[in-house]
Design goal:
Strand content: 35-45%
Structural class: alpha+beta
CATH superfamily of the largest domain: Probable inorganic polyphosphate/atp-NAD kinase, domain 2
CATH architecture of the largest domain: Sandwich
Distance between the termini: 39 Å
Number of helices: 6
CATH topology of the largest domain: Tumour Suppressor Smad4
Order of helices and strands: EHEEHEHEEEEEEHEEEEEEHH
Number of strands: 16
């Protein structure tokens, strides 16, 4: 087995752990390499592997997972961040867990992704987006709200006047969508959730959507906005531009050691603020 270890270069704990883990793997005859997670954003700069280990918080895991998705490589997260919703292994359980994986154990946790197409009113070429966590339309001017018209299954739902709008996967429901007031979803769910950000005078504060739903989000009004996929792929929007979002046929894969009920067993602990 060949293992790539991603780490957060801005975290001393992540750097130290990745060095120790790589040394440990090599000492057991594993072909292992290290890469800063920020370098990993460019797939062309990453070597191939049978497994990625992501040592950091959810941001590090997300960056490794986006690379893994494109290369067809599962990710084994190790919790070294603040919330760590994506990780089941801690630094002190990693070596036992990776030993199980090296011996052929564990299972694949396949996660739903969403994709979007940005259609410009001025006729510019369409832009394709893909996300593990969320696609967000948000304001660009801090003192302005934006207006977003929402259609689901080609039926008008609402026009939101807000700081933005989040369309999240179940995996992303514990990320930005949660901080904006959205529900926590079972990460294995294939549904999507829509959460407005600081919406003004609305009766629909969040909405869980069927896995086959198609959303059309059209920017209304003159105030500038932008669309992001997983915090990346920033694209400006102008009035009349539409972002069409649906569940993707592509998925990303996490390597797991423990049973699937671990998410619920640790949920309260992960939400606790010290």
């Amino acid at each position: 087995m060949r293992v790539g270890v991603f780490y957060n270069p801005f975290s001393d704990a992540s750097v130290r752990f990745s060095e120790a883990a790589t040394t440990w793997l090599r000492g057991r005859g594993v072909d292992a390499w290290r890469s800063a997670s920020h370098e990993g954003r460019d797939v062309r700069s990453v070597e191939t592997a049978d497994l990625f280990v992501a040592a950091g918080g959810d941001g590090t895991v997300l960056r490794a997972a986006r690379v893994g998705m494109r290369m067809g490589i599962p990710v084994l997260p190790v919790a070294l961040g603040h919330l760590n919703f994506m990780a089941e292994l801690e630094p002190d359980t990693f070596y036992e867990g990776i030993s199980t994986v090296l011996d052929g154990g564990g299972w694949i946790d396949e996660r739903t992704m969403i994709e979007g197409v940005v259609t410009h009113v001025d006729g510019s070429p369409d832009l394709d987006l893909i996300a593990i966590n969320e696609i967000i339309i948000t304001r660009r001017d801090i003192n302005r709200i934006i207006s977003v018209d929402v259609r689901i299954y080609d039926t008008h739902l609402n026009t939101y006047h807000s700081d933005g709008l989040i369309i999240s996967t179940a995996t992303g429901s514990t990320a930005y969508a949660l901080s904006a007031g959205g529900p926590i979803m079972d990460p294995r769910s294939t549904a999507m959730v829509m959460v407005p950000i600081a919406a003004h005078m609305t009766s629909i504060k969040s909405l869980v959507l069927h896995e086959d739903a198609t959303l059309q989000l059209t920017l209304r009004g003159r105030h500038s906005a932008a669309v992001y996929a997983d915090g990346n792929d920033h694209h400006p929007l102008q009035e009349g531009d539409t972002v069409t979002i649906r569940r993707s046929e592509r998925t990303c894969a996490f390597k797991r050691v423990y049973s699937s009920n671990t998410f619920y067993a640790r949920l309260t602990q992960r939400l606790r603020r010290d």
